[in-house]
Write a structure and sequence with these properties.
Length: 391
């Protein structure tokens, strides 16, 4: 048994002062304050306040939209590349993530899905993160090919296709069932049938890259969509008489939504609007990080697309193309862009993400959860990342 001690802890629903976290066989068995329970004599005690006097324990961050990082693009990555990618994101507090595709030829996408599935299954077979913290790829997020031509962003138009259950099933089979999330434009012909089938397979269907009217977006939610992808970006702009997809995303309490809080994709004032509209329970932070995250200015791959990074902006022909954002920065940005405190921001990067994606036993520090923990300073700086209880 391992017992962690710290200054405080975010579950993240509540805050516990002078916490104890009991860990056995990769899982948390109990969380309490020091006044509530004695530490067994045979336990290994790790007092994090010795190295980090104001240490805050929080759930490890969960990023449901990651294209890459540290020079690695998930659609091209080989096993050794995933090793580097996983270490990079763990250094920024991420303990699990969804490897996210972009629109590409279907055959090429299927080969990428097979490689990503290999990485997911390899990570699951490792009982401990020996040799340093490595984020765990928990699933695949299909961003494409079922996107709107009008709101495609930098996704190549020649690789977009109308949704059919047949194409979805081909992608599903290539991924060996590891598709956990899918972005789709609900207004496309055939979209509602695909949304319904994906939801039946327990995929979190997210509406995005869409020019949908309010009615079409609402139909997508009724068909089974329960989330929205990078709100405001690659969506029909809001109009006070024809609110479109954003009218549904911002007002429907039954769906959650995510946002790229880098101060580039969305103005900080709009981040405030988003947080007020979606609230503490339905706001999710993502990075949309590309291979360029953590790298110097230059040219990088995003699936079949070459993107350019300069001064913190990732672009293709002048259009934003993913980001270089890290999740720890996103969390700190929320505390600076809004009235939310660190615990609120942590919730948007942990529990809310896992609830949106249907991930049990992740995103919270409670008995039964996997012991994925980030140690933070009061300012939100990552001081240590613990994955599956590995120290």
């Amino acid at each position: 048994m391992i017992v962690l001690c710290a200054n405080r802890l975010y579950t993240p629903q509540e805050e516990i002062l002078e916490p104890l976290v009991f860990i056995e066989d990769r899982r948390i068995t109990a969380v309490c304050s020091r006044t509530q329970r004695e530490i067994p004599a045979n336990a290994t005690v790790v007092d994090l306040t010795r190295d980090f006097p104001n240490a805050i324990l929080a759930p490890g961050y969960v990023d449901i939209h990651v294209h890459g990082g540290h020079g690695v693009d998930v659609m091209r990555a080989e096993p050794s590349d995933f090793e580097r990618l996983n270490r990079f994101h763990a250094s920024h507090g991420v303990t699990s993530y969804f490897a996210t595709t972009v629109a590409a030829p279907i055959d090429e996408t299927c080969r990428a899905l097979e490689r990503i599935a290999n990485a997911i299954e390899a990570a699951e077979s490792l009982r401990e993160n020996n040799g340093g913290a490595r984020a765990i790829p928990l699933g695949i997020h299909l961003e494409g090919p079922f996107l709107s031509h009008h709101r495609r962003g930098v996704h190549p138009p020649e690789y977009l296709v109308e949704p059919t259950v047949g194409i979805f099933d081909r992608l599903w089979q290539a991924a060996r069932g590891h598709v956990r999330m899918m972005t789709i434009a609900p207004e496309l012909a055939g979209a509602l049938e695909v949304i319904s089938e994906a939801a039946r397979r327990k995929v979190c269907v997210s509406i995005g890259h869409s020019d949908a009217s309010l009615e079409a977006a609402r139909a997508g939610v009724h068909a089974g969509a329960r989330h929205a992808t990078h709100t405001f970006n690659a969506m029909r702009p809001f109009d006070h008489r024809e609110p479109g997809i954003l009218g549904e995303v911002l007002t429907a309490n039954e769906i959650s939504a995510d946002i790229i809080a880098d101060g580039i994709h969305v103005a900080r004032e709009v981040v405030q609007v988003f947080l007020q509209a979606k609230g503490l329970a339905n706001s999710v932070l993502i990075t949309d990080a590309t291979a360029a995250a953590g790298m110097p200015d230059g040219n990088y791959q995003l699936g079949p697309i070459q993107v350019t990074v300069k001064d913190g902006m990732c672009t293709k022909d002048g259009k934003l193309a993913g980001s270089v954002l890290t999740m720890d920065r996103a969390v700190r940005n929320i505390t600076q862009f809004s009235v939310w405190n660190l615990r609120d921001a942590v919730r948007a990067a942990t529990l809310n993400a896992t609830q949106a994606a249907g991930l049990a036993q992740h995103g919270q520090l409670t008995a039964g959860a996997e012991a994925n923990i980030v140690v933070l300073s009061p300012e939100g700086e990552v001081q240590k990342t613990i994955i599956r209880g590995g120290l």
